[in-house]
Amino acid sequence: MDKIDDFMVTRSPTATRPLLGLTVLVVEDSRFACEAVRMLCLRSGARIRRADSLASARKHLSVYRPTVVIVDVGLPDGSGLALIRALSQGLPRIDVILGTSGDPTVEDRVIEAGADGFIGKPIASLAAFQAAVLMHLPADRQPRGPRLVNQDEIEPDMLAYRDDLTHVADVLQQDESPQTLDYVTQFLSGVATSAKDKDMEEAVRRLIAERKAGRTPPSGLADLTRMVNSRLSAVSGF
Description:
Blueprint: E1 23-27, H1 31-44, E2 47-51, H2 54-63, E3 68-72, E4 74-75, E5 78-79, H3 80-89, E6 96-101, H4 107-112, E7 117-120, H5 126-134, H6 158-174, H7 178-195, H8 198-212, H9 219-233
Parallel strand pairs: 1-2, 1-3, 3-6, 6-7
Antiparallel strand pairs: 4-5
Helix pairs in contact: 1-6, 6-7, 6-9, 7-8, 8-9
Protein name: Response regulator receiver domain-containing protein
Pfam families: Response_reg
Keywords: Phosphoprotein
C-alpha cells in the first residue's frame, strides 16, 4: 500500500501552499461541509478524497494511506469515534487524525479516542485549517521559511446545502425512528451551523430538547420537516 499518492510524494510544500504533497481523506456525510474542506484543501495545495460513511472510509483506507484523515463524529452507519480509535491504534499510524463536529462538547471525546486535534464546524478559515494540520506534521513535512498566513474564509456553494436538505427530507420520509432522529438532528446541527442558518439551528435545538424531555411525538419534528421542505422549495434564496 502506498503511503501517499505517487505523484504527490515529490511535491514540496511552499509558503503559499503549505499542504502541497499531502493527501487528505475527509470522512463526512454532509456535502456542504465536505465542499468547504475541498475548497480549503485546494487553496492549501492538498489533494482530497471523500468518504461519506464508515464503510466507504474503510474501503478507501484498504487501498491507500492518506497523510491526513478528518473524521466527522456523526456518520450514517455509526460513530466517527470508532474510526478515530482504530486509526490511532493502526501501524503505521496516519500522520494526522482530526475529528470534526458542529457540537463543540464532543471535543474531549474526540481527543480521548486518539485524534491529534479537533476542528469545530463551520470549517471556513483557511489559516485555522492549515494550522490544525501543520501543527501535527513532522518538521520535514513543513514548508521551509516563513509561511504566509492567509485570513480568507471560504464560502461553499449553497447548492451543496440543498443536497444535504434533500438527503434529510428523504431520510425522514422513510423512517422517523429514534435512531433516525438521532442521526438527523446530529447531521442537521452540523449542516445548519456550517451554512449559518440560524433558524434551522434553533429548530434542531427545539427538537433535541423535546426529545430529551420525553415528549412523544415531538411537535418540533413537524416544524423541522416543514422548514426543510420550505428551504428546498426556495432554493433560489440560498
